[in-house]
Amino acid sequence: MNSPNLPVVSEGSRLTPGELHSVVFARAALGRRGYDEEQVRNFLQYVERELVQIFGDKAALADEVNRLRALAAKGTRGVMAPEDAHFQAVRILSQAQQTADLYVADAERYTRELAHEARLHREAILSDAKGRAEQLLEEAHRKAAAVADAAVRTAEQMAPPVARPDTVPDGERRAMEREIAYLRTYSDVYRTHLRSYLEALLRNVDEWESSERASLPGVTPGGTANPPG
Amino acid sequence: MKDSFAQVAGEGDSVALFFYSDLFVRNPHLRDMFPIGMSGQRDKLLRALGHIVSQVDDLPTLVPFLQQLGRDHRRFGILAEHYPNVGASLLATLRHFSGPSWDEEIEGDWNAAYSLVAKVMLEAADENALSTPAWWNGHVVAVERRRFDICVLRVQPDRPLPYQPGQSVALEVPSRLRHWRYYSMANAPRHDQTVDFHVRLVDGGPVSPVLVRGTETGDRVRMGSPIGTLTLDQESGRNVLLVAGSTGLAPLKAILEQLAGRPTPPRVHLFFGARTRDGLYDLEDLTKLAGEFPWLTLVPAVSDEPGGHGFSSLLNSGDGDVEHGNLSDVVARHGPWDGHDAYVCGPSAMVGHTVEQLARLGVPRDRIRLETFADAQR
C-alpha cells in the first residue's frame, strides 16, 4: 500500500468493517475526475486477497467441525458431551460387573461340582463299607457253623453212650455245645475283623479331619478370619 | 405405563444391569451396599418391578407388598436420602430403553408412580423403626454338627427378638457380607432369648457352607426382622399333622414346642423324612419328645434306602421304626387326615407332592400351611 490513509494491517490480522468504512482515497490528478485510479486498484486487490483468505479460513473451519463431529459420534477420542461421558461410564461399569458375575458364577459352579463329586465319593465309601461288613458277618457265620459241627462230632466220639440221670439229655447237651462253639467262634472271627476294620476307618477319619482343618474357610492358623472373596 | 414397562422389560437382564451401573456411576458410595456378584440382585429387582407394575391397579394388594419391601430394606441400611437416587436412575433406565416412545407425559407418570412407591415404602419403614430395630446382632453360643452337611446353631441375640413359632429371619455372616439367607427359628421363644437354626449345606452356595462348616462358638451374625406365615392356627381346635422334609423340620419343631406349652395339647402326628437314615439329623431329640408327650406320634421315614434286611438293619437297630418310601406316600398311608390342620415344610418337590396327596385325601386347602426352601438358603 503506497497510500498512507489505507488501513495498515499487520500479519495475521484481518480487514475490519470499521477500517473499510474509514478508507479515504486521494483525489485524481488535475484535469481528471474522481479518485486516484492507482489507489483504488491497489485497494481492490487488497480486499480480494482478504476475501480469499477469509473463504479459505471458513472452509478449514468447516472441515474441523466435521472432523470433531465424526470423532464425537465415534466416541473414541477428543472431548465428549457430559451425557456421552456418563453413558460411556455406565457401559464400562456394566462390562466390569458382567465380568465379575461371570467369575462368581464360575467359582460357584466349580465348588458345586467338587462338592457333588465328594458326595458321590462318600456314598460309594459308605456302601462299600456296608458291603464289607455284611461279608464279614457272613464269613463269621460260616466259620462258626463249621466249628460247631466239628465240636458236636468230637463230643459224640468222646462221650460214652451211657445215660446219666442227673445230667441233661444227650440231644440237648449236644445242641448246647454246638451253640456254644458256634457263638465263641463267631464272636472271635467277628471281633478280629471288626477291630482291623475299625482301625482302618479311624485312620481314614483322622486323615480327613486334618485335611479338612487345613481347608476350612475363614480359619487360618492364627485364628483370624479371612476376608470374603 | 404398563405398555411402556412391557417394552422395557423385554430387554431383560440388560435393563437391570444398566440401572445399577447408572446408579453406581452417579452415586459411587452406594456400591458397597451390594454384594460383588449382582446376578441375583438384578433378578430380584426385575421381579419386584414386574410385581409392582402388574399390580399398579390393585392397591389393596400392592400397598402391603410395598410396605413389606420398605421394612425389608431397613436391614440393608437404606435411608430416605437414597430413594431419590434410585428414582433418578430408574427414570434414566426407562428413558434409555424406551427409545422414541418416551415423552414428557410418560416421564411424568413414572415420576409420580415412583414417588408414591417410595412414599409408601418409606412410611412403612419409618413406622417399623418406632418399634423394631433394623437388624439384630447375635453371637453363636453353640454349634452341633449333626452330619457332614447339617448343623444346628444356637444364637444369642443382643436384644429380645420377638417372633411367632414357624417364622424365619434373614441371616448374614461377616465373611459373606451383603448375602442374606432365610432360616427358621427351630424353637418356641425361650426365656433366655436364644434361637436355634437348622442349617443344611447347599453345594456351591455362598453362605450355607460357611454356616455349616466354618462357624464356631462366639462367631457373630446379623438377623433381620422375623417374617413368615407358616404359623400355628391358634383358633383351630383340630388335631395337627406336621410334615417335615430334612431341615424343613425347623419351623415345625418350633410349632411343636408351642403346642407342648398348651395346657391340653391336641393330638399331633409328626412325619420327619430324609433321603437316608443319617439325614434324620434330629431323630434322637424327637424320639425323646415323643417318649415324653403321650399326645405326640413320631413317624420317621427315608426315601432312598431299601427296606431293612441283613447287616444294615442290624447296624441301624435302635433308631426305632423308620418307614420307607417318599414322605408324601408315607403320610398318605397313615391317613385319613381330614380332621387335621396340616403344616408342611421342606424341599419344593416334597412339599408339592404332600399337598397333592393331602388334597386327594380330602384335606381342605385352607387347612394346609406350607413353606418351601430353595434359593433362600444357599
- Quickly count the helices of chain B: 12
Examine the secondary-structure arrangement and name the CATH architecture of the largest domain in chain B. Answer: 3-Layer(aba) Sandwich
Largest sheet of chain B: 6 strands, antiparallel
The gross shape of chain B turns out to be globular
SSE series of chain B: HHHHHHEEEEEHEEHEHEHEHEHE
Radius of gyration of chain B: 23 Å
> Strand percentage of chain B, roughly?
15-25%
Structural class of chain B: alpha/beta
How much of the sequence lies in strands of chain A comes to under 5%
Structural class of chain A: mainly alpha
Give the oligomeric state of the chains in this entry, treating copies of one chain as homo and distinct chains as hetero: heterodimer
Provide a descriptive summary of the structure in words:
The complex is a heterodimer of chains A (229) and B (378). Chain A folds into two domains: 58 residues, no CATH class; 126 residues, no CATH class. Chain A is 72% helix and 0% strand. Chain A contains four helices and no strands. In chain A, helix 3 runs antiparallel to helix 4. Chain A is rod-shaped and about 180 Å long. The C terminus of chain A is likely disordered. By secondary structure, chain B is α/β, with parallel strands linked by helices. Chain B has three domains: 130 residues, Globin-like; 88 residues, Translation factors (Elongation Factor Tu (Ef-tu), domain 3); 139 residues, Rossmann fold. Chain B is built from twelve helices and twelve strands. In chain B, a hairpin with a 2-residue loop joins strand 1 and strand 2. In chain B, helix 2 packs across helix 3 and helix 2 crosses helix 5. Chain B is globular and about 70 Å long. About 1% of the residues of chain B have low confidence. Chains A and B meet through helix 3 of A and helix 2, helix 7 and helix 10 of B.
